[in-house]
Write a structure and sequence with these properties.
Largest sheet: 8 strands, parallel
Structural class: alpha/beta
Distance between the termini: 26 Å
Shape: globular
Strand content: 15-25%
Order of helices and strands: EEHEHEHEHEHEHEHHHEHHHEEEE
Number of helices: 12
Length: 360
Amino acid sequence: MRAAVPDGTEITIPYPCDFHHHFRQSTLVDATVKIASERFQAALAMPNTSPPITTVELCQEYYQKLTSAAQAAPAGAPNMEFLSVLYLTDMTTVATVEEMVKHPNIRGFKYYPAGATTNSAFGVTDVNKLYPVFSKMQELGLVLCIHSEVSRIEIDIFDREKVFIEEVIRPLVKAFPTLKIVMEHISTSFGVDFINEIPGDYLKGSITPHHLVYNRNALLVGGVKPHFYCLPILKRESHRVSLLEAATSQSGKFISGTDSAPHDQARKESCCGCAGVFNGHNAVELYVEIFESVGKLDALANFFQAGKDFYNIGGDRVMKLRKESWKVPETFDFPDEENPDRAGKLVPLRAGEDMLWKIV
């Protein structure tokens, strides 16, 4: 660990964007948009809602819902930009690709292997059937965002990313060398090494703050801690170190994507708890904190700008942060997504703990 910078130190970075955010649905959208708008210039909204966003019509309805929530939020939020991706299924057609390109907010597809994560039951079961779709996406410059894990029961949960790279991503990159691909929330050194191996600027890896800060000890040591349970699951320390080296490398191949995912406390702390970490309230500060811990604050600008360049997010807005502590709330009052009339509770990442950096 490097020596920390003094309290009161201020830094300025390109205004961050989040290229992987779960806003959910129902009245929960108002709460998630409000929090995200306090930290991000733009956010890529995930389509694994219920029902999933599989058509352009559904996508535009959801986009309007997000935009309306931003307009109703406090000052500053109306300027937030929402990017959209459609939920890829075995039934997705080339005609859908040709229709979606007419809408600037729609940037591509999200590929969920069926059964890999929350609300992924409608995901892809046979990637080869979709090669005509990928060909048209490559032609039109659309982005394929991928949850890069196999979901077969015989594959160990800690090996899912490694297997997926060899079975799906490597053949895909070979077949479509100029298709824009983001391996989202990479969690292993295998993901880092593969992305570094591929030449050019078409393949990126997004990295969450929780995969940079925590290893699997946070989830398993001293008892199972459900609020650290996410998919992809936290891995061993050597993988966390590899992710950190990648994020701070200034290679331009790794970008921000929080995978902020709200779940009601009661369902998170149950006998079969939901996968997902809610970090929408402190993701930027966590990125700053972990970059500082290895003496790489100067690499932050590249990390945030790389994603903006890839997704063509313009503007010259900047964000200033100060080395100043503040305490994360123990819980947030959030509507229950499944029962909107019920007041729910959400336990955020670092609940009740001090953060070291503050947005000013």
